[in-house]
Amino acid sequence: MSVKIFKPTTPGQRGRTGLKSDDITKTTPEKNLTVSKSKTSGRNNYGRITVRHRGGGSRQKIRIVDFKRQKLNIPATVTAIEYDPKRSARLALLTYADGEKTYIIAPLGVKVGNTLMSGADVDIKPGNCLPIENIPVGTMIHNVEMQPGKGGQMVRSAGTSAQLLAKEGQYAQIRMPSGEVRRVNRQCFAVIGQVGNVEHSQVKLGKAGRRRNMGWRPAVRGSAMNPNDHPHGGGEGRTPIGMPSPKSPWGKPTLGYHTRTNKSTDKYIVRSRHAAKRKKKK
Questions:
Q1: 61 and 35 in contact (C-beta within 8 Å)?
Q2: Which long-range contacts (CB under 8 A, 24 or more apart) does 167-174 make?
Q3: Is the pLDDT of residue 161 over 70?
C-alpha cells in the first residue's frame, strides 16, 4: 500500500492525497458482523451539544470487532482484509476451524491465508494473541488489555505499537506510543506486532467536503466571534486575545491546563507521556 496523489484538475484535488486500496480484498462486510447506529450529532440524551462540530456525514455501519480473542487454541484463517469507516486501521476477517467468523484489527504483515491463534502457548508471530507474561521482553505489541478479560483497549490505531519493557512481580511495564511507560497486569492479553495501515497519517483531505463526509462540521475561530460568543471575540480588526493564555468558549484555559480527573490510575503510570516529550525536546 502506498500514498496516492491526484492530478490537480480542480482546486480540491490539488492538495489531496489518499491511500491505494490494493491491500483490501473484500469490499462488502459480513452482514451478521455489522450493526446500524443512529447519529446523535454530538448531543446527549437531553439534546444538548456535548461534542462540538459533529453532524452529517455519510451513512456508515459499525463492524463488530473481537477485541477479546477468547477462542483459545483454535486455529483461524485470515479470509479477507476489509476497510472500516469507523477506524483508521484495517480489519481482518477470521474464519475459525469451527466455522465461526470474527473481525480483528489487521496487524502489519498479516495477509489472506495466514493462520492465527490465541492462547497461552501460541507462537510469537504477528497476529497471535497471548498473555503478556508469555511474551518475550522487547516484543512489539498492540490491542493491549487494561484489565484481564475486558478486551483490548490500548494501541488500536493505524500504525501504532507498544513495546514490552520489563516484567516485575504481578505487573509488566509497557512503553506506549505516546512515550508513557505504564504498568499492566501480566495476565492481560495482547496481540503480537504492529497495527497495519501505517501510512494513514500521511493522507491529506485536500478539501472541506471530505471532512464533512466524515461527519465533522466547520470549526469557527474564537477570534472571529463576538465577545458574547467567545472570550477571544471582539476588537476592531485583528487584535490579540487580550489575556495571558487562550480559553475555551466557557472560560477554561486551553494551554497547559490539566484536565485529567481519574487519579486512581496514576499508580500504574511509571513515566508520564509529558516527561517523555520534555526529554525529546532536550
A1: yes
A2: 167/132, 167/133, 167/137, 171/268, 172/132, 172/133, 173/270, 174/132, 174/141, 174/144
A3: yes
Extract the C-alpha cell encoding 254: 486551553
The single residue listed with the C-alpha cell 472500516 is 84
pLDDT tens, residue by residue, 80-98: 999 999 999 999 999 999 9
Q: What are the tens digits of pLDDT across the range 239-267?
A: 999 999 999 999 999 998 888 888 888 99
Q: How far apart are CA 184 and CA 193, in angstroms?
A: 18
**Domains assigned to the chain:** 3-34+61-200+268-281 (2.30.30.30)
Global confidence as pTM:
0.89
Average pLDDT score over residue span 177-200: 96
pLDDT of residue 281: 65
Q: Which of 212, 249, 246, 243 lies closest to 230, judged by CA?
A: 249
C-beta neighbour count of 95 within 10 angstroms = 15
How many angstroms separate the CA atoms of 203 and 258, rounded?
30
- Distance, in Å, from the CA atom of 208 to the CA atom of 211, rounded to the nearest integer, reads 5
